[in-house]
Amino acid sequence: MPASELDTPVGRLRAVSDGEALVRVIWIGRGDGPAPEEDAVSRETVRQLDAYFHHGLTVFDLPLRFRGGSPFERSVWEAMRAIPFGVTWTYGDLAERVGGVARAVGGACGRNPIPVVVPCHRVVGSSGKLVGFSGGAGVESKRQLLDLERGQTSLF
C-alpha cells in the first residue's frame, strides 16, 4: 500500500493509503525499512500533518477509510472526529454519544487505526487525567499532542 513518512515532535509517522483514502497512521522507527511508494493521498496526509505540527492546521480534510474494527469501534472512531482542536472529552462523554460504556470506548480508542488525524489523544479519563495512549511514547505522546494544541510547552 502506498505510504509517506514525516518526522514529528512525537516521533516518525507513516501515513498509509489504499490509493483512495487514508487507512492508517503508524509510529515507526528508523529500522522499520523504507516506506512503500507514495501516492497523492499519503503525500497530502503528510502535508496536513506537517501543517498541524507547525500550528497552521486545526482540522484535517482527508478522505478516510476505517478498515476492520467492529461497528461499535467504527462509531467511536467517527465520533472522535467531532472533538474540536484543543478540547478534550472524557471516555464517558464519548460513551454517551455512541451508546456504550467508557471502558469499551477506551478499548476502541486504543485500536484507532488513524491516530492524530482521528484525535484519540483528545480523550481523557473522567477526572481529566491523561490515561491510555497506544501510539509513540504512550501517555507522554498524548501529553505532547495536547500541549501542542493548547499552545503550551510541557510543564513535566
In a nutshell, what does this entry contain?
By secondary structure, the protein is α+β, with helices and mostly antiparallel strands. It has five helices and five strands, in the order βββααβααβα.
Give the SSE map:
Elements: E1 3-8, E2 11-17, E3 22-28, H1 40-53, H2 71-80, E4 89-90, H3 91-98, H4 102-110, E5 123-124, H5 139-149
Parallel strand pairs: 4-5
Antiparallel strand pairs: 1-2, 2-3
Helix pairs in contact: 2-3, 2-4, 3-4
Can you describe what's shown?
With 156 residues, the chain is of the alpha+beta class. The chain is 33% helix and 15% strand. It has helices at residues 40-53, 71-80, 91-98, 102-110, 139-149, and strands at residues 3-8, 11-17, 22-28, 89-90, 123-124. It is globular.
Oligomer: single chain
Query: Which range does the strand content fall in?
Result: 15-25%
Binned, the helix content reads: 25-40%
Number of helices: 5
Largest sheet: 3 strands, antiparallel
Q: Low-confidence runs (pLDDT<50, min 5 residues)?
A: none
List keywords for this structure.
about 160 residues; alpha+beta; 3-stranded antiparallel β-sheet; two-stranded parallel sheet; 5 helices; about 15% strand; globular
